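Task card 7
Instruction: Convert sequence to structure tokens.
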Amino acid sequence: LFGIKFQVADSGYEEILQKNLTHEQQVVFLALGKAKATAKKFPKAIIVSADTMVLFGGKIIGKPKNNTEAQKMLKSFSGKTQTLITGVVVLDASSGQVLNHVEKSRLSFKKLSRADIAKYIKIGKPLDKAGGYNLQGLGFNLIKKVEGDFTNNLGLPMSVVYNFLQKLGIKI
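Output:
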């Protein structure tokens, strides 16, 4: 990551949605919870954390429970646009300084045939991602257009992370 030695660590944080928060507040709340939980394990580290929410038709779209649900999700996305909202938190565990940002982007899906959806479900590992897809693998072929920071659609808007690390004095 930007030539910096880093370690990926599971925060162990249990994500529980807070009904009183907006979508933007929610993703920052969850990212901050993950960062604070990770800081307990690494008290001298700079922690980078994020949480992404998929919004479609006014609803939050979670991870599909099975391939049938993934198929229904992808069929509903066909030819339509959704919004991704990512809360990014960079926490200096030593000082307690927290920087946070919300990044939004929009993904427009191609018109998807049954064959497109079946192929993706067979190869694309749809069950571990909100919305049943990810752009790192075969999922890029589902998308017609991206509006906003492309890396946000991968789950971590890198320009935001880069700027926050510089603000904390990390040499990049």
